[in-house]
Design a protein that fits this description.
- This protein is an all-alpha fold.
- The protein has two domains: about 1-55, no CATH class; about 55-155, no CATH class.
- About 60% of the residues lie in helices and about 0% in strands.
- It has eleven helices and no strands.
- Helix 4 (about 55-65) packs across helix 6 (about 85-95) and helix 7 (about 100-110) runs parallel beside helix 11 (about 145-155).
Length: about 160
């Protein structure tokens, strides 16, 4: 993975190299390779992995959500998705300075993958919102929504 040797990776896969890690998806070769979607997508046999390369049609769906002006409409579109791949792409492409409503919809979506939830913890900086005093949370217009999202993430996945 480190040297991006595609032929070596393919050979290891062909010979049945174990892709999963006992420590979960974050400790897997897929996770190490995910900054290079072509390599990560070679490792989709890894438990918990998500395809990262989108088709043109999938990218159009993701873009429609990401560029939606209305947070409520974006959230509704997210609720209508039926794909962990699309949810993952939306979460990782989202402008986290915008409203928390679309990301609440993603977090609550039954197709949301564990790795997507873990990404959300990092992208939201969930610990920051959980440690903040209640009055400070309420001073921000979107503070209560981001706090609620952090609390949902704490329930759904381990926050370090």
């Amino acid at each position: 993975m480190k040297f991006k040797q595609l032929e070596a990776i393919q050979l290891l896969i062909e010979y049945g190299v174990k892709l999963d890690s006992p420590q979960g998806i974050q400790a897997s070769a897929w996770n190490a390779a995910r900054r290079d979607p072509a390599i990560a997508d070679m490792l989709l046999g890894t438990k918990g992995s998500v395809r990262l390369q989108l088709t043109e049609e999938e990218q159009a769906v993701v873009d429609e959500i990401l560029y939606e002006e209305s947070s409520a409409k974006a959230a509704a579109k997210i609720r209508g998705l039926d794909s962990a791949v699309l949810l993952h792409a939306v979460v990782n492409g989202y402008n986290w300075d915008d409203s928390p409503e679309p990301m609440l919809a993603a977090c609550e979506h039954p197709a949301c993958a564990e790795i997507t939830l873990l990404d959300m913890v990092d992208l939201l900086d969930a610990d920051y919102w959980l440690e903040m005093e209640e009055d400070e949370v309420n001073r921000s217009e979107d503070g209560p929504g981001y706090r609620r999202l952090a609390e949902l993430l704490r329930v759904q996945c381990p926050i370090s």
